[in-house]
Amino acid sequence: MTPFELRQPGSLTEALALLGGDPSARPLSGGTALMLMMKAGVLRPSRLVSLGRLSLGKIEAGPDGALHIGAMATLRSLEKSAAVARGWPAITKALRTLSNVRVRNVATVGGALAHADPHMENTLKAGEIITQVEVPALGKRSAAYLKCTTRSADDWPAVGVAVSLGDEDRIFVSAAVDRPTRISSSQEIEKLKIDGDLHGSAEYKRQLLRVFVNRAINEARNAGH
Asked: What is the mean pLDDT of the chain?
C-alpha cells in the first residue's frame, strides 16, 4: 500500500474542503472495500478524509413518516434498528443476507452506496459526500427483497429482486444486469440484457429471475396480510 495522508475533519464543511482540493483524495467511512482496494494497489489515494467525527450516524423515522438514515450508520445498526423493523421490515430482512456480520459491523450505509460495487451505480461527482439516505414511508404498501447466491448465503448475488406492491407495483432486478433495473412485469425479463459471470451464465440467470421475481411478488403479497 502506497503512503497516504489521513485527515479527520470535525465538520462537513472541512471535509468537503479537504476532498475538493485534491483530485486523488477519497472519503473514508467504514473502509471495508476501500482498504482492500488500496492493499491490492487498485486505488492509490494521496489523502484519506475520515468521516468518523461527523455526526452522521442517526437512524430515525421523521415527522413526515419517512426513514432518515445517516450516511455513517453501520449496516448492523440499520439491521438492529427498532424503527426500521417496525416500518420497513423488508430492509431488516434484506440486511441479514448482506455480506457477513463482521462486515456489517463496520461497513456504513453511505459508504456502500458511494463505493457502488459492480452492478450498482450512483451519480456522485468528485468531491461530493453522501450525508443521509431517505426512505419514504411504506404506508399500506408491502415489500420484499430476495437474492440467489451460487456459493455461500452471504455471497454476492447471482440475481437480486426487490418488489414493492401497492397502488403502483414496482419491481427491480439487480446483479444479473449492469445496474438496478425496473421492470413492469415478469414478462419483461425476456427483454433484459443479462450479464453472465462466475455466478452463472446469462441464460441461467434469466431463469433465476423468472423464478425469483414471482417468489418476491408472492412474499410481498403475504407480507401485506
From this structure: 92
